[in-house]
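Input/output pair, single chain:
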Amino acid sequence: MIQSMTGFGEAGCELDGISYVVEIKSVNNRYFKSSVKLPDTVSFLEEEIDRLLRGSIARGTVTYSLRLKNVAAKAMFDIDETAVHRCVERLGDIASKLNVDYKIDLAALLSLPGIIEPVLPDEDEAKRITETILKVSQKAIEQLKIMRDREGKSVADDLNNNCAAIKDRLELIRKKSPMVIDEYHKKLKKRVEELTSQASLRLDEEIVAREVAFFAERSDISEELSRLDSHLGQFTHSLESTQQAGRRLDFISQEMLREANTIGSKAMDSDIAKWVVDIKCMIDRIKEQVQNVE
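Output:
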């Protein structure tokens, strides 16, 4: 069954009193695109998390966010005291040269680059943190997939309903199409008879037959109807596929619209033209929906 590209997954766990909360959001995109947001203390995991996402999700814009809770300030960052002393000394030298009084704003001082550095874990601790974060990330991905499956089922139901409605219109067109030629033959013959009777001329049945044959060939839509039927069959079959079918469904819907346009241009009947408009509206709905299929 198809999956939607829209979804949300969340999972959390604790390690050494620190809470790790992962949120993953996804929206539709023609390709895969990820955005990984991590605290500085675990920024070394960005590539590994991106690889995990790519291995689980084929298409969509995916936003990954990791939040830490109950983290002591000491565990998150450290202050480079040497750099602080150097800055204070330089400020004192400048103030002395300019002969001005000055006060040091510690908050402003801490905002300077290189003063505060994240505390990175040692090798053993980094390994434990990595295993914990990847495990909770996998749980969040599973929650995301559950929502995408649920959304995909809703999209598939709507697509199947539109396909069924198109088949109903095609059946109406298929029944009406032979009648169009008969009606044209009768109208043409009646019109020619009216003209020839006024001029006291004899009706040439062979000329009328050739004209009707030319009309029948020009307005024949049987091939387009067969192809559109085939496209519908491929489309509904792809909806049941366990593989990513979004691009395939998009291509088939374009081909369906192409056949519908050809039928509309060739069919010389108001009823058929109306049914073709209905079909094109349904195909537009289908094209809009498949943009969100993985």
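The CA atoms of residues 157 and 184 lie 41 Å apart. The beta strands are 7-15, 18-27, 32-37, 60-69, 77-79, 116-118.
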